[in-house]
Design brief:
With 376 residues, the chain is of the alpha/beta class. The chain contains 15 helices and 16 strands. The strands form four sheets. Strands 4-14-13-12-11-10-6-5 form an eight-stranded parallel sheet. Strands 1-2-3 form a three-stranded antiparallel sheet. It has a three-stranded antiparallel sheet with strand order 7-8-9. α10 runs parallel beside α14 and α10 packs antiparallel against α15. It is globular. The two termini are 38 Å apart.
């Protein structure tokens, strides 16, 4: 992987990441394709209407179904899904933790039961790398010990210590594999933990960033804490992260979250919000969220967002979208997902342009002004 910083404006960064499959310009939002597909869309939709350079796959879900061995036999994620650009796969630890009953974490890994059939499984740092080698993703996330907030100081301390041990095991295993010709074109990111505690975040960041990872993520946020606590934690943590490697904030978030965390130096994001909200009738626009089921749109001839250049806004009215949603028409799922993802990726493009022109602060103020919010 190649990484270069093209321009900075304050702490905001416009960078370029080059993998074996694509060139990714940051800030970047990565659509979530949990089981090898972005919900309601296929690879042709993505490449025609959204044009992402990177999407996510989920290690936990793909391991359970269809099985990472099946994906490997079908040409890895790229051959299996026919999406030719980059994939990032998470470690599956979060899903093992959140979807399973009777999860047990020990010093070696995570014991869990499948949410599909109750079968027992065990994720270790090496195991999740083996799975991701089969998946053939361009960026692999290591197994970390996730902590649900709020948590005791003792639990957070144990979490970051275990995460560091697992990170050392993971990077050593991956580098040895590469010497054997395994995962040569795959990159590996570590995940900084520590809750919202500054001392723990500093400890975790310093320990992990001393290791030979290709990039670093901030994990364990957007899990119920106040937005300002998230922003403060990100701002505190990024100072301990290397400038010459990508910075990824996992599972975030709203358009406001993206703007605020780019402002604080983050390069990469992912979240199910644009796709999930689309399916539930909430559409994102340049002036805020729109609830398409509202009766006010019954005979509204306007596009969802007059400022949006997506295929949906160029062709269909709010009236038609409301009708499809209320009629439970499956076409609505596709069109609303195309719009929301286009909006998110276009927002990132606008931020990159603002950074490149040295006008990010001006962009940020205008972003909020359109929503009726004035910031200093």
């Amino acid at each position: 992987m190649q990484f270069q910083i093209d321009k900075t404006d304050g702490k905001a960064r416009a960078c370029t990441i080059t993998t074996a499959h694509s060139t990714i310009q940051t800030p970047v939002f990565m659509p979530v394709g949990t089981v090898g597909a972005v919900k309601a869309l296929d690879a042709v939709d993505l490449q025609t209407f959204i044009k992402p350079e990177i999407i996510l796959g989920n290690t936990y879900h793909l391991y359970l179904r269809p099985g990472d061995d099946v994906v490997a036999k079908m040409g890895n994620l790229h051959g299996f899904t026919k999406f030719p650009k980059s994939f990032l796969t998470d470690s599956g630890g979060f899903q093992a933790f959140s979807l399973s009953d009777n999860v047990k974490i020990d010093e070696e890994g995570i014991h869990f039961k499948s949410h599909i059939d109750g079968s027992k499984h065990y994720f270790t740092p090496k195991k999740v790398i083996d799975i991701q080698n089969n998946l053939g993703s361009d960026i692999m996330m290591i197994l970390d010990d996730l902590v649900a907030l709020p948590a005791t100081q003792e639990r957070i301390k144990a979490s970051i210590e275990r995460t560091t041990r697992w990170a050392e095991e993971s990077i050593n295993y991956h580098r040895e594999n590469q010497k054997k010709g395994i995962g040569v074109d795959q990159n590996i990111f570590a995940i900084i933990q520590g809750g919202t505690d500054k001392a723990f975040r500093e400890k975790s960041a310093k320990e992990l960033c001393a290791l030979d990872f290709d990039g670093f993520a901030i994990g364990g946020l957007s899990v119920g804490e106040a937005n300002q606590d998230m922003y403060d934690t990100v701002e505190w943590t990024t100072q301990f992260m290397p400038e010459d490697k990508p910075r990824y904030l996992m599972g975030v978030g709203t358009p406001e979250d993206l703007v605020e965390n780019v402002y604080r130096g983050v390069d990469m994001f992912d979240c199910v919000m644009p796709t999930r909200n689309a399916r539930n009738g909430t559409l994102f626009t340049s002036f805020g969220k729109m609830h398409i089921k509202n009766a006010a749109y019954t005979t509204d001839e306007n596009p969802i967002d007059p400022e949006c250049g997506c295929m949906v806004c160029q062709n269909y009215s709010r009236s038609y979208m409301r009708h499809l949603f209320r009629a439970h028409e499956i076409t609505y799922l596709r069109l609303s997902t195309i719009h929301n993802l286009y909006y998110y990726l276009d927002l990132m493009k606008q931020m990159r342009e603002a950074i490149s022109e040295g006008k990010f602060e001006e962009f940020r103020k205008e972003f909020y002004a359109k929503r009726g919010v004035e910031i200093e």
